[in-house]
Write a sequence for this structure.
């Protein structure tokens, strides 16, 4: 449903032959939702990477960092991956080379959250790989999602991403 608004153009000179009025619909006046706005929490995962780097640089006890990584993975990151795979990836053909790459990177990132025998090396790899992955998705995948999605889908995606917790919910902010 469109609501018509009639606006007078002040730049037009009075002229009996020139009675141009502009008709603007309510849909045109509303700002267009973008995939970046819908997935703002995705971009905030870069703070997670920064927090790990800061903890390492400040020589914070590794157990504190590992506890944060475990919490972040279970509480924020894994649900975020599932949300991406169920909502965003379904917008594009599953055989699309970008979706294949993103799924492969998601599997690798899930494995990196499982800390191995060398936790420091694992933390460094995790924060580097995650940052590369976020940049890849935002630069390559998001434009594809933008092309394929409707405004209604973007609003639904935004609503779902906004339900995810954030870093501020962690009780030991060692990076401050």
């Amino acid at each position: 449903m469109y609501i018509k608004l009639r606006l007078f153009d002040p730049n037009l000179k009075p002229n009996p032959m020139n009675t141009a009025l502009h008709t603007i619909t309510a849909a045109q006046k509303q700002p267009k939702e973008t995939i970046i706005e819908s997935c703002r929490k995705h971009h905030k995962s870069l703070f997670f990477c920064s927090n790990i780097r800061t903890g390492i640089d400040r020589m914070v006890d590794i157990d504190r960092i590992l506890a944060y990584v475990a919490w972040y993975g279970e509480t924020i990151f894994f649900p975020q991956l599932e949300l991406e795979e169920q909502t965003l990836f379904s917008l594009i053909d599953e055989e699309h080379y970008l979706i294949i790459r993103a799924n492969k990177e998601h599997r690798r990132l899930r494995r990196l959250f499982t800390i191995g025998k060398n936790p420091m090396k694992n933390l460094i790899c995790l924060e580097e790989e995650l940052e590369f992955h976020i940049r890849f998705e935002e630069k390559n995948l998001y434009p594809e999602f933008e092309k394929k999605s409707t405004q209604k889908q973007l609003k639904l995606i935004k609503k779902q991403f906004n339900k995810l917790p954030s870093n501020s919910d962690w009780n030991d902010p060692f990076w401050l």
About this structure: The helical segments are 26-29, 35-38, 40-43, 45-57, 62-88, 97-112, 119-148, 151-162. The two ends are 49 Å apart (CA to CA).
